[in-house]
TrEMBL record:
One of its GO terms (cellular component) is plasma membrane. This is Short-chain fatty acid transporter. The keyword Membrane applies. Keywords: Membrane, Transmembrane, Transmembrane helix.
Length: 462
């Protein structure tokens, strides 16, 4: 969003700089570069740290680790992009869009916006992080079209509500430890046991702070909404306008074989039969399991069913692809960072430094604090767990600490650090259509509040 270069805009900026939250917004706007540029800067920081502190920080190892990490992440990157794209296709379905418009129709004030966005996005994110990202961005845009609400504030609120995703049903750490034979199930590899979701996602020390973050941040966001003169509302762009053309129609040769094939639901039915058949067969023989690939398949099937025809679904995915471009740039760069941290032993140095001073009662807290740092450099939950898990879990077993609590300490810290790490905010702001710097100014406050809530929960709740 471009600012007006007139005296009123300058005065608005001056007024905005007086408040604490507004000052954070101003700082992020002035200091924080584009997320891709930031990822390059983080690469340089990690290289310097690895050279000085990594056990294997010699230049050949750094270069080899960077190269391997850059391309090793590509498979995972495609999985993440497919989750976002298939989630977008669900949220873009006509029936879902009508639902979003109906939800947004009665929202005219910041208070009502927060009361709607935080629970809706929080629940969606708890169910699946990809769905939460898309629903949050699209719901924010629908609300902003109908009311004079600061758009950066609204998008930041939806992203703050989304932050609980790593404590929900799509948590990579919780799911992997609950899945027999999962490559990242480090607990099973060490003990032969799996950790059910009742001990992680549904445990009071995880569930209570998850709910508190949504409720408390919802209240705080109502209080920090900019004053009327400082509000920067949503500005409709041509690319953001609702698509009026019927996705089921063809511009020419409407009765041709190609057009009829595109509009036919037979292709959709075939994929639905294959997908549902596979899930039914697998879950009936091996029990219910939900991993990344299964999540993508479920999203694909739901999206196909809601979009009805192959051409409608294809067009939804094409629109989603425009939002995933920035992620395509960042994933390889962060893969290189991950490779350097792993290959040089830098990540193990960070994790071991915290584990060394831990006791059975405090290991989960120290795992949480070390995860805050590692997440800023490795924002992918699965990749992060592959780096930190091999150090914190053996420590938990050695000193007889709570293994589930230790693992979820890592996951809960990801929720917190994501409010400062722009990696996951990129698709949100791309869909919403706003500069990321203004959004991160608000979510810096979410970082502080959620840090306190999760830390106290790990420490005090049984």
């Amino acid at each position: 969003m471009q600012k007006n270069s007139d005296p009123h805009a300058a005065a608005t900026g001056a007024r905005r700089s007086r408040g604490v939250v507004a000052s954070l917004v101003y700082v992020f706007e002035q200091v924080m570069p584009d997320p891709f540029v930031l990822s390059i800067g983080l690469t340089l920081v990690v290289i310097i740290l690895a050279r000085f502190f990594g056990p294997h920080g010699d230049l050949p190892t750094v270069l080899s680790a960077w190269y391997e990490g850059t391309f090793k992440i590509l498979g995972f990157a495609l999985q993440m992009i497919l989750i976002l794209a298939t989630g977008y296709a669900i949220a873009a379905a006509p029936v879902v869009q009508r639902g979003l418009r109906a939800l947004a129709a009665g929202v005219q004030t910041p208070g009502r916006a927060a009361l709607l966005v935080f629970p809706v996005v929080g629940i969606a994110a708890w169910l699946n992080w990809g769905l939460g990202l898309v629903v949050g961005a699209l719901l924010s845009r629908e609300i902003a079209r109908r009311s004079r609400i600061d758009f950066a504030w609204l998008v930041a609120g939806s992203y703050s509500a989304w932050s609980v995703c790593n404590s929900g049903l799509s948590s990579s750490i919780a799911l992997s430890q609950a899945s027999h034979g999962n490559a990242l199930n480090l607990v099973e590899k060490a003990t032969g046991q799996v950790i059910p979701l009742t001990q992680t996602v549904f445990a009071p020390f995880v569930l209570v702070p998850t709910i508190l973050v949504v409720v408390v941040m919802g209240v705080i966001f109502v209080l920090i909404h900019p004053k009327d003169l400082d509000v920067e509302p949503y500005v409709e762009r041509g690319a953001d306008a609702p698509v009026e053309r019927d996705a089921h129609s063809r511009e020419s040769a409407a009765n041709s074989f190609a057009a009829r094939a595109e509009r036919s639901i037979l292709g959709t039915l075939l994929l639905l039969v294959l997908g549902v058949g596979y899930l039914g067969m697998t879950w009936s023989t091996k029990g219910f399991e939900l991993d990344i690939n299964t999540t993508i398949l479920i999203f694909l099937l739901v999206g196909l069913a809601l979009q009805r025809t192959p051409i409608a679904y294809a067009e939804a995915i094409r629109r989603a692809a425009a939002q995933t471009g920035p992620m395509l740039l960042q994933y390889p760069v962060y893969g290189g960072i991950m490779g350097i941290m792993t290959g040089t032993g830098l990540a193990s140095v960070i994790a071991k430094a915290f584990v060394a001073i831990a006791t059975p009662a405090t290991l989960a807290v120290w795992s949480f604090l070390s995860s805050l740092i590692i997440t800023l450099l490795i924002p992918s939950a699965g990749g992060h767990w592959a780096v930190q898990g091999p150090f914190v879990l053996p420590a938990a077993l050695a000193i007889h600490a709570d293994v589930a609590r230790t693992a979820m300490g890592v996951a809960m810290a990801e929720n917190v650090s994501n409010m400062l790490q722009p990696f996951w905010a990129v698709p949100v702001v791309a869909i919403a259509g706003i500069r990321i710097q203004r959004v991160m100014g608000y979510t810096a406050l979410t970082f502080v509040v959620s840090l306190v809530i999760y830390l106290l929960a790990l420490w005090l709740i049984p």
